[in-house]
Each structure stands twice: as C-alpha cells, then as structure tokens.
Design a protein that fits this description.
- The complex is a heterodimer of chains A (192) and B (242).
- Chain A is mostly helical.
- Chain A has 9 helices and no strands.
- Chain A has 2 domains: 103 residues, RNA polymerase sigma factor, region 2, helix turn helix motif (Rna Polymerase Sigma Factor, Chain: A, Orthogonal Bundle); 86 residues, Orthogonal Bundle (Arc Repressor Mutant, subunit A), CATH 1.10.10.
- Chain A is globular.
- The two termini of chain A are 34 Å apart.
- An 8-stranded antiparallel sheet of chain B has the order 5-4-7-8-1-2-3-6.
- The termini of chain B are far apart.
- The chains are: A mainly alpha (192), B alpha+beta (242).
- At the A-B interface, α1, α2, α3, α4 and α6 of A face α1, α3, α4 and α5 of B.
C-alpha cells in the first residue's frame, strides 16, 4: 500500500481516461465488498460474479457515473450492485426468490484483509448502528434492501399491517441517520 | 426540518431502500422536486442505504474474477478513450503553418491575437488569425453542446492561449480545468479558469505536453483551485478539424 493512496474520485477520473490500473485499484479496494453484497442478495456464486463484473464494467464504460451527493464511492458502487442484483433476483423463478428470502441474517463481520482502514472503521460503525435497531426494524430493512421486496410484500411476508411496516422502516432509517450521520456526512458529498 | 408530518418521510425511507410500491415513485419524485427538506432527507437515506452492506460478513471473491473484468473492460473502452483516435487524427491533420518563429514575433502575435479575439471570440476570423507559427486546436461541447474553445499553442511548445465561449458561469468554489491527455502517462493540467457573464474567457495556458504526444484535450469542471486529475464530466473535447 502506498503511503499516500489515490483518492477514489481520482481513480474514477483516471478510469474515464481509460486508465486500466485505476479500475484495478478500485476493484482491489471494493471488489470484496461488492461481491459480499451480491452474494447476500442473489445467493448463487455465479450470479454474484455476474453482478460484480457488471458493476465494475458499468463504472468503467460510463453507463453509471458517480454522483458525490450519493456518498462515498464504495457506497455508490454498492448501489449499482444492489440494483443489478435485485434485477437478477426478480428475473429468477419464484421458488428461487423464496429461497433468497430465507437467507440468514448478516453474521458478525470480521475484518477483510484487503479493506482500507477507513472501511474497517465504517464497517464497525454500521454494524453497531444496526445492532441498536429492534429485530422488527432490522428485518424490515433487510427484506427491502437485500430481498428486493416492496413494503406491501414485506407486510405480507411478516403478516403485519402495512402501516406498521412503513412506520417501522421509517423509524429504523431515522435511528440509523442519527447514529451514522457523521459517517455519511464525511463522505465527501454534500448533505443538503 | 419542518414538521415531518407535512412531508412524506415514510415513502422516502422506502424509496431509498428500493421498497416503494410500483407507481409511487412519480409522486415522491414530484414532491422532492419542490421540497428541499425532503430532497435532503432522501439524499441522506440513500447514503445510509449504500452503507448498509458494510455490516455483512465479508466473502472473498473468486480469484479469477478480476481477470474476467479486465478482459471485458478491454473490449469496452471508456468514452474519452474511444474518442482518442479522433483526437489524434485531428491533431495530425490540422493545417499547421510551418514557419520559423522568434520569441519577439510570438509576443506580437499573442498581443494581436488577444486583442482581436476580444472582438471575434469564434468564427473564421479567429481561424485566419491562427495561421501563424502556431498550432490550432478546436474543442467543442461534449456535455455542453453550445460551448466551444480554440487553443492556439505557440511553436515554442510551452505557451498558448485559449478562447472559450458558451460555458455557464460557476459557483465561487468551482473552476473549469483544461487537461492534456498524453498518449502515455497521467493527465496534465494546462489551466484553470472561470468565464464572464457572457460565458466567455480568454486564458493564457501552459502547454505541458507536445501536441504530437497528446491524444486528446478536455475541459472539466472541478472544485477550486483545481484537481490533480479530472473528476468532473468532460464538457469540451478536441474534435476533428474542419
């Protein structure tokens, strides 16, 4: 690791100019995170591989462009990956989708060997914040974000009133916002 | 923030998590377009959603995944690189005027050029002026279709001038930045500048690379006082000579 690593937005700038080494640097930094997210959503390793490949290629050829307003570069990448993974999930059979819904909740995270130091800190902060949510709040968020379910579908899945799911989701996001506010506002993106 | 009951916070949370019901997106989009408070909150929720996967237990990707991405990436060049062939051809075919130049003459030329460009920021008059011991490069709008620029690089290969028109004015903390993209190596900055109320500017530039070794030139918008490498989209790019 260099003493002064190149900032993520600079890597994206170099990628736009065709610098393959910048794409590789971005992959080394965040390929693991994106793959982890893809596996969590689609389950199947081959489909997850497809999601990662498509995510980095979209950032490479300009089909998706970085908006600092959306936060840090890795979170932008994960936004692309999440959408691609959900698209894949929705295109699969209903049976496969049900299997994904039954995916186990996130385990306690351990440090990844390639994680940049600030990602390690962010990882711990997010994990702590999620632990402060109630089980119901956490479940509602997971079914939405990782399961690709709408709020009505979540209500049906959990056998709860739609209004309960809506308020539970909002309360969870508000709680996360309060706890993670400093983290997301130090993302290099404006918050207002 | 004002009383959240006046707003649509439930829908914002669902929107950011991708859980909004089909057909509700338009309503939320319409609301946030006119409600700064909800637009700000939605942006925060989206950043939160992007950070959620950090809590997952890491899984190491397959060892050959990078090779597959690299292989495919080589088939899909980024837009600027795809245009580099055009830029190179353009640089080669531009009607250079081969003539010996002396520094004093160049100074005279530069003064005259600057003076006349104040009247003719673009058009054939400027190109006529450019038939001097120098090289002319035209940049046209990539993301800014109404914008254009002309660069006159002196034959000493180190200095030049650029006339720009059609770019929007920027906020105080933003600047435009001109880049030389060498055939090999990192991008080189040639100037940072802002434009006047008419969207025009006259800029003395540093020419950091031989034009023969340059595959393209671009102008981007950057945070002041400028960046080490382009981070904004390409607003102007070198195009083929006409």
């Amino acid at each position: 690791m260099s003493i002064e690593p190149v900032a993520d937005p600079e890597l994206l700038g170099r990628m736009r100019l065709g610098d393959e080494s910048a794409l590789e640097a971005l992959y080394v930094r965040y390929g693991g995170l994106v793959y982890t997210l893809a596996r969590r959503i689609v389950g199947d390793p081959e489909l997850a591989r497809e999601v990662v490949q498509d995510t980095f290629l979209r950032s490479w050829d300009g089909r998706d462009t970085y908006d600092p307003e959306r936060g840090r570069v890795p979170w932008w990448l994960m936004g692309i990956a999440r959408n691609r993974a959900i698209d894949l999930l929705r295109s699969r059979s209903h049976q496969a989708r049900l299997r994904e819904r039954a995916a186990p909740p996130p385990e306690i995270s351990t440090t990844h060997a390639r994680d940049p130091a600030d990602t390690v800190v962010a990882r711990r902060t997010v994990l702590d914040a999620l632990r402060e949510l109630s089980d119901g709040q956490r479940r509602a968020i997971e079914l939405a974000y990782y399961g690709g379910l709408t709020q009505t579908e979540i209500a049906n899945e959990l056998g709860e009133p739609l209004g309960t799911i809506k308020s539970r989701t909002r309360e969870a996001m508000e709680r996360l916002r309060k706890v993670l506010g400093p983290l997301i506002q130090s993302a290099g993106g404006r918050t207002s | 923030m004002t009383d959240s009951s006046e707003h649509i916070v439930d829908e914002l949370a669902a929107y950011a998590l991708g859980a909004l019901e089909t057909g509700e997106h338009a309503r939320v989009d319409e609301h946030v377009a006119t409600c700064a408070s909800c637009a700000s909150r939605l942006a925060e929720y989206r950043r939160l959603a992007g950070a959620l996967p950090l809590a997952l237990a890491p899984i190491t990707p397959p060892s050959d995944l990078w090779d597959a991405i690299r292989s495919e990436a080589r088939q899909r060049r980024p837009r600027v690189r795809m245009r580099s062939a055009i830029g190179t051809r353009w640089l080669r075919v531009a009607p250079w005027v081969a003539a010996a130049a002396v520094a004093a003459w160049l100074v005279t030329w530069n003064v005259r050029l600057q003076s006349e460009l104040a009247q003719y920021a673009q058009g054939p008059q400027v190109e006529k002026l450019a038939r001097r011991p120098a090289r002319l490069v035209i940049l046209s709008g990539a993301a800014q279709s109404q914008a254009s620029a002309r660069i006159f690089a002196a034959v000493d290969g180190q200095s030049g001038h650029m006339a720009i028109s059609g770019l929007p004015r920027l906020a105080a903390e933003r600047v435009y930045q001109l880049w030389f993209l060498p055939k090999a190596g990192p991008p080189l900055t040639a100037a940072t500048f802002t434009v006047d109320v008419d969207g025009r500017a006259w800029v003395v530039i540093k020419v950091p690379a031989d034009l023969d070794d340059t595959r393209s030139l671009i102008v981007t918008e950057e945070a002041a006082p400028g960046n080490r490498a382009p981070t904004g989209p390409s607003l102007l790019e070198a195009r083929e000579w006409r």
